Each structure stands twice: as C-alpha cells, then as structure tokens.
Amino acid sequence: MSIISFYVDGFRSMRLGRTLWQIIAIKLLVFLVLLNIFFPDYLKNNFATDQQRADHVLHNLTVLPAEK
Amino acid sequence: MLEQIDLSQLNWARGQFALTAMYHWIFVPLTLGLSILLAFFETIYYKTGNEKWKVVTKFWMKLFGINFAIGVATGIIMEFEFGTNWSNYSWMVGDIFGAPLAAEGIFAFFLETTFFAVMFFGWNRVSKKFHLVSTWLVAIGSNLSALWILVANGWMQHPVGMAFNPDNARFEMNNFWDILFSPVAISHFVHTTSSSFLVGCLFIVSICSWYLLQGRHVDMAKKSIAVAATFGVIAGAFVGFTGDESAYTAAQVQPMKLAAMEGLWDGEVNADLVALGIVNPGKKPGDDSEAFQFDIKLPYLLSLLANRELDSFVPGVNDLVYGNAEHGVVGAGEKITIGREAIHQLALYKEARENGDEIAAEVALAGFNQNQKYLGYGYLEKPEDIAPNVPLVFYSFHIMVALGTFFPLLFAAILFFLYKDNLVQQKWFLRLGVFGLFMGWVASEAGWVVAELGRQPWAIQGLLPVSIAKTNLTTTTVQMTFFMFLIVFTTLLIAEVRIMLKQIQNGPEGN
Asked: What is the pTM of this model?
C-alpha cells in the first residue's frame, strides 16, 4: 500500500470527517481574511528596516511615565 | 461598579487576548487529556484483543477528532495579536520565543500529518501494533507540544537565560537550557498537562454518566468510566502535587501573585492558609480596612506552602508595595526609582549612540546595566500599580483548588460504586457526574486566570509592564476586532457543541 493511497482512501472513506474538514477550511479562510485585514503587523507595516523598528521600540522604552 | 472598569485601549487589548486565550483553552486541555485516554483504551484493546475495547476507542477517538477540528488554529490568532496589539513586546521577545515556538510548530506539523492520520485512517490498514504506537505518539507529541508553549509562557513569568541588548531593543537568549528548565516553565508544564488529564477524564465521566442515566450503551459507558476514573484518581493526586510546586515557585519568583492568590495584604510569620473566604472588594494597598468579610484559615500552612518552613515569613501585598525592612523586602517605590534610573541611562545611551559619542555611550551603558534589574518598574506611575486585582485572583485560585480537591473524590466514588456494582442505581450521583466536564472547564480556566492575571501588570515579570508592551492603536480598532472574534468564536463553539451532541446522541454505533 502506498502512502498516497493510504491518504486518498482515508479521505474518501470519511463521513463525519468531511464536515469537520469543511469547518476547518471555512474557519481558516475566515481567520486568514480577518487576520490579514484587521491584524496588520504594526512594526512590519510602518517601518522599512529592522534598525528603524528597533529605534521605534527603543524610543518607547526611553519615555518615562511623567513624559507621556 | 461599571464606572470603575477602565475601558482604555490597553484593557481592550488585554481583554481581546484573554478572550482568544480562554477560548483556545476550551479545546486544548481536552485534546491533551483525551489523547492519553485514547492511548489507554487502545492499549487495553491491543492487550485483550476484545473488540468491545476497539468500539470504545473508536467512539472516543471520534469525539477527540471533533474537538481537535474545532480547536485547531485558534491559537494562531494570538500570534497575530502579538504583532498588532503588542508590537513592542513582540519585537523585544522575538529572539527568545523563536526557538520554542518553532519547536512547537515542528512537533505539531509532523505529528498531525503522519501519526494523526494513521490514528484515523489506519484501522485495519496498518498493524495493530503500529496503530497503537501512532496513538501513543499523538498523545505524547500533543503533550510535548504544550511544553514549548509553556516554556515561552514560563519565561514571561520568570525571565532567565537572556540579556537585554540596547542596540536592537531585544531580549537575546544566552542560555537555552536555563529557559527550557526554568522552574516556572517546568512546574507550569506538569501542572497544566496533569490538570488537562483531569479535564479529559471528566469529559468521559460526563458523557458516560448521561448514558448510564438513560440506560444506553451501558457496557461501553462502564468500561470507559472505569478507565477514566482510575486515571482521574492518579492524575488528581499528581495535580495536587504539581499545584503545590507551582505555588511554591510563585512564592519564590512572583510573591505578589501568591499574596493575591491568598488575599494576604500584610505579611506574616507562621502565615495561615485561607481555606475559604469572602474578600473585602474595596480594599486597596495601604488602607486599614479588613482583608476579609468572612474567612476560615488553616494555621501555618501558607508559610509551609510558600517556603517549606512553618515559621517562615510570607510577604503580603502591602510589604511588596511599600517594602518591609525587617524582613528584607524591597518595596516597589525603591524599585521604581532604580527602574527610572535604568530608563534614564538607556535614553542617554541612545542619544550618545545617535551622536556617535562612544565614551558617553559606554558610561550610559554601564549605568543601565547596573540598574536594569528593575527596568520595568521604572514605567509604573506609583508603587500601588504592582498589585493585581486581588479579589479576582483570590476567587479564581480558590475555585480552582476547591474543584481540584473535589475531582479525585468524584473519581474515587465512581470506582467505589463500580466495585459495588451499583453505579447505574446512583441516579443523583450520575446527575452530578454529567456536570463534571463543566466543572473541569471552570477549574482549568480559573487556573489560567490565576497564572495570567496574578502576574499583572507585567507582560514580562519585572522588566516590561503591559502598558509599555502594547501598540499605540485607537480604542475603536481594538474594540471592533474584540467583538468580531467574539462573534466568530461563539459561532464556532455552537458548531462544535451541536456536532459533538449529535455524535454523543448517536453513540458508538452511529456514524
């Protein structure tokens, strides 16, 4: 038995598993869409280089509470 | 009361992370616990050759699959939240978290694509022995996968094996083994996995109790509940032992968390353990009001729990906020002063580096290194800010402990009734058993609240408060995504419950 046929036959014989895979697919799609639209990586999107990102974080770290 | 809730962007971001983590945590303990129980069921089938045990194994494997399918990928959201809501923190811990999270990903990927498939597709297609080995590997691998997450979490609770690099504003790993074998990481791992075993056992107890009440699938239910209760008694004892170790570790490295867990405002020698109590909800650090409206205490036990010595001193919230010279406790006020000096020197270092003044940079760096131990305290506005929400942590801890004490008794009673062969006649007891899973979930989530809210205000203990870890986003942005996920998670939870209930209704013979 080849590994491929093991998986193919396994997926074909699924009953409840098909519903679960549909849920997983829908969930992943919804998550990926939502995450990509609403959860941008702040540092990645707002700064071009790692040095700029480091400088930005370092700036935040050097502000005392009274100076905010 | 509502007007006292701080609805700032910071707290919406915290609330969103809590929502995501607690939702994720509905599924994880069940996966960890059920995976081990599946391995037990299948081992019995393998040893006895009795086909009834195969039916038992396949039934619980089906429910395990449903839980896994609904829960899978819910943890990914948290990683995105780091980048969006917690960008300063995310940047600073990247070097530390990279290794454990990569190890977790590799473990999960290989297990889930190979042995997980054998578990579900391999019946009658691979040898019994190989199938059994696959089931065990999924169980062991799933639990080891949790290790890496808890190593990362343990580092946040007790940052070790690293150094802060002021040139790139990152904590850099300098000793992987210190991080891996941190006492907090290890105690959290063993406590979390063993308590997850209890949740798995309670899941089986709940469903079997329901079957026995209805007089359906009696043989399968009795077989399943016997294994779950036996494992539950052992796991319950282990949870008690690991919980004690977790509390001891908290006392050593996070004394404020322990003080909040016990509602201890003023430190004591021969400190008593509060077995039961109603805390004074309005009490604040430094005031003279009573700590409890009602309490039952066990003498000396808190000193024993915290330091393994009956006559030892356990610091309270006030000692940690204001200091206690007699017992050598440094107050938060002093730490804030040192922390601010560290921030000042860091600012001087940054300025000197920008100006290309190497000598000034070297001097500032030396000053920073001298004070950086309390860096995080420098960002706090006042000493009282180091105290978490005491009532919430206290009640969560005591609910968790009460339920954790009750579960082994529940399992022992099941074994007693099975031994007497009259479990089916114990209708009242079976009704209680049906609620076992819900109690397990409450205890498990309460444990998460103790671990995470008990360490507030810290994102990284002593080094980075959540107020500095966050990204400067608008409150509306975070609110919108909070409610968006609330809707998505609720929908998914309803889907799981419906599918799970349908399969339970169908029983082991159903599709």
From this structure: 0.91
